Each structure stands twice: as C-alpha cells, then as structure tokens.
C-alpha cells in the first residue's frame, strides 16, 4: 500500500500564486499577514524580489475565480491561494457572491489540476470575520499551511497519463 501525504518542508521549488480581494480589506489584510507569516516561517521567500510568490489584488471576492483561473492555467504555479471576506448584509447579495466564488474556485482547481486554497471567509458579521482573521486566530496562517501541504502532495502523486 502506498500512502501519499503532503509535507511542510522542502518548499524550495514551490511557486505560489495568491489572489486577494480588496473589498473588506480590514479583514483580508489581516488574512494576508497571517498567510505570509506562515509561508515565510516554512521557507517560502516572501520578499519583493521573490520568485516563489506572486500576489494579485482584485476588487472583491466575486472576481477571485477569474484571476485564480488565469494564474493556475499559466503553468507557473503549483498552488494558488485565494483570500477574501464576504460578510452577510440585509440583501441576498451575500448568497449570490458566496455561491459564485465558492463554485468558481472549485471549478478552477478541477479544470486546471492546480490546487486552489479556498481562503474566503463567509460570515454573518464583521466581528466574526475579524475573529477569524486575527482577534482569536488568523485563518490566513492555516491557508498558507494548506497551500504548502497541497503543493507537496500534488508533487508526490503519480502524474496522469496522456
């Protein structure tokens, strides 16, 4: 029996694309800080001169799948991380955005074979979003770890046959 698992070490050749929404930047900025801290502490070069990490800013979470698709399809990245925050309001807009961004991100991973980490918070209140972005714990840290694990796991799995 062969067991495949991702690891958090040996990240020297790993290239990561990160897509982050500007909308709700009070929250997404904190997620980004946690994610970058996690990646850096595990050996990813996050300096401005880095060849391991590229960051693309989009207006809001709805735009995340399109840019994630472009990054994943480029062949340049082994994993893509998405960061956003959709906070419920008084209209059905929340439901529409959440449904489309989650379906879109899942489709990118399926269509390209590149793991896409779903780091889009979907909360009822700003307080809940802030708690998940650093007041209690920063889920950005976890999204960074998920990216390292999935990048490593995908490299370890057998390659598909043409």
Automatic annotation (TrEMBL):
Broad EC category: transferase
Keyword Flavoprotein: no
Residues at the catalytic site: 93 (proton donor)
Residues reported in the UniProt entry to bind 5-amino-6-(D-ribitylamino)uracil: 23, 61-63, 85-87, 118
EC number, UniProt record: 2.5.1.78
Alphabetical list of CDD domains matching this protein: Lumazine_synthase-I (cd09209)
Residues bound to (2S)-2-hydroxy-3-oxobutyl phosphate: 90-91, 132
Keywords: Riboflavin biosynthesis, Transferase
Pathway(s) where this gene product acts: Cofactor biosynthesis; riboflavin biosynthesis; riboflavin from 2-hydroxy-3-oxobutyl phosphate and 5-amino-6-(D-ribitylamino)uracil: step 1/2
Catalytic activity: (2S)-2-hydroxy-3-oxobutyl phosphate + 5-amino-6-(D-ribitylamino)uracil = 6,7-dimethyl-8-(1-D-ribityl)lumazine + phosphate + 2 H2O + H(+)
Function comment: Catalyzes the formation of 6,7-dimethyl-8-ribityllumazine by condensation of 5-amino-6-(D-ribitylamino)uracil with 3,4-dihydroxy-2-butanone 4-phosphate. This is the penultimate step in the biosynthesis of riboflavin.
Entry's family note: Belongs to the DMRL synthase family.
Protein name from the UniProt record: 6,7-dimethyl-8-ribityllumazine synthase
Lineage: Bacteria, Bacillati, Cyanobacteriota, Cyanophyceae, Oscillatoriophycideae
Name of the coding gene: ribH
């Amino acid at each position: 029996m062969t067991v495949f698992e991702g690891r958090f070490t040996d990240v020297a050749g790993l290239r990561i694309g990160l897509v982050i929404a500007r909308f709700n930047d009070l929250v997404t900025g904190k997620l980004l800080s946690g994610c970058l801290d996690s990646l850096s502490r595990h050996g990813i070069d996050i300096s401005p001169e880095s060849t391991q990490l590229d960051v693309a800013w989009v207006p809001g979470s709805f735009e995340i799948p399109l840019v994630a698709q472009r990054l994943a399809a480029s062949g340049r990245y082994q994993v893509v991380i998405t960061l956003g925050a959709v906070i419920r309001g008084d209209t059905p807009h929340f439901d529409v955005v959440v449904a489309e961004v989650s379906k879109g991100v899942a489709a990118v991973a399926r269509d390209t074979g590149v793991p896409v980490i779903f780091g889009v918070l979907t909360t009822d209140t700003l307080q809940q979003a802030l708690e998940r972005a650093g007041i209690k714990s920063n889920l950005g840290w976890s999204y960074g770890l998920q990216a390292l694990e999935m990048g490593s796991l995908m490299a370890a799995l057998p390659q598909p046959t043409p």
